[in-house]
Amino acid sequence: MNNPSISIVNSDAFVPVTTQTWSNGRHAVRCVKVIQETWDVATYCFMAEQPVMFFFKPGQFVTLELEINGEQVFRSYTISSSPSVPYSFSITVKRQPGGLVSNWLHDNMVEGYELAVHGPVGAFNSIDYPSNKVLFLSGGVGITPVMSMTRWAFDTNADVDMVFVHSARTPRDIIFQRELETISSRISNFDLHLICEKMEPGQSWAGYRGFLDRVKLDMIAPDFMEREVFCCGPTPYMKAVKRMLENAGFDMTRYHEEAFGATPEAVEEQAVEDAEQAAEDLDAIAASDMFNVEFAKTGKSVRIAPGETVHAAAAKLGLHIPKACGMGICGTCKVKRVEGDIDMTHNGGITDEDVAEGYFLSCCSVPTGDVVVEY
């Protein structure tokens, strides 16, 4: 960390204060504010005990380190605030049926609660893909990274033509609605469009209804082919958007969707230690007991010892399968099995549907024989 000195004023004199700047790693923070955004979505604001300037790229995420039911749990959440408000950062979380961490946060995270976070990391951000014309597409709580990008552009008076399209289940599920409408009313380069899937009894809605489709997109952003697209939402939503754009002939190099990026530093260090230990153990393992792991797209393969993960096998070949938590939580390292069997011990980072289709999480899956992976 850098430690520049700044001066603040108290009643007596200028007093020098050491202010740290955020860098990827493990940091102790405390919750300073809880904001109920909708009936099932809340924003949690965090600060450090000592002044820390939380610089990050709008769209990046952090990984929370929590203790739930006596066990250490990691979960990654996109930062919903903007780095233009540097002395705190926020995450916005939806209560999920059966969701271990999301429900725990809603029930237990209060002002004053102390915890550790890892980050910031993530390749999905508006800094690395600058453009003077952008299209933000979000569904549900997937609004958080594009909200961070929007807040940053608004606060910095960026000369960017923004079209913001958000899809929600019902009008009462629209997150940040008042703030979005305020931004839209204050600057001319922010074009807001809200879509609600359905109405509930007693609700009124004058906006778009149903789902985002090509007809609506053409009405909302007829020049979408000229824009940089940032998309985040539930997997079915992102798949539908991606398919719609591909069918339209969109330049998919200008399409970006939420995907957790670099591994937190502490997890990387542990992975290095594990790899070194595994290398030392190889001499004691007979060649006949080792398994072959082949990565079909690259044509590379490697022999690994029983108990080593597919992710470790990829690392030996210099192949980078992105991961965030290293514990089967975030789902970042999902890959598809072509042949062979694996034993996966995950912590909720993959759906039964994905497993049925042959997908698995490489960070927590060990081959039980020779395996071919689609990567």
What's the arrangement of secondary structure elements?
Layout: E1 5-9, E2 14-18, E3 20-21, E4 25-38, E5 41-47, E6 52-53, E7 61-68, E8 71-78, E9 89-94, H1 100-108, E10 114-121, E11 133-139, H2 143-155, E12 161-168, H3 177-186, E13 190-196, E14 208-209, H4 214-220, E15 228-232, H5 235-247, E16 255-257, H6 265-281, E17 291-295, E18 300-304, H7 310-316, E19 334-339, E20 342-344, H8 352-356, E21 359-361, E22 365-367, E23 371-374
Parallel strand pairs: 3-6, 11-12, 11-15, 12-13, 13-14, 15-16, 17-23
Antiparallel strand pairs: 1-2, 4-5, 4-10, 5-9, 7-8, 7-10, 17-18, 19-21, 19-23, 20-22
Task: Please provide a brief summary of the model.
The protein has 375 residues and is of the alpha/beta class. It has eight helices and 23 strands.
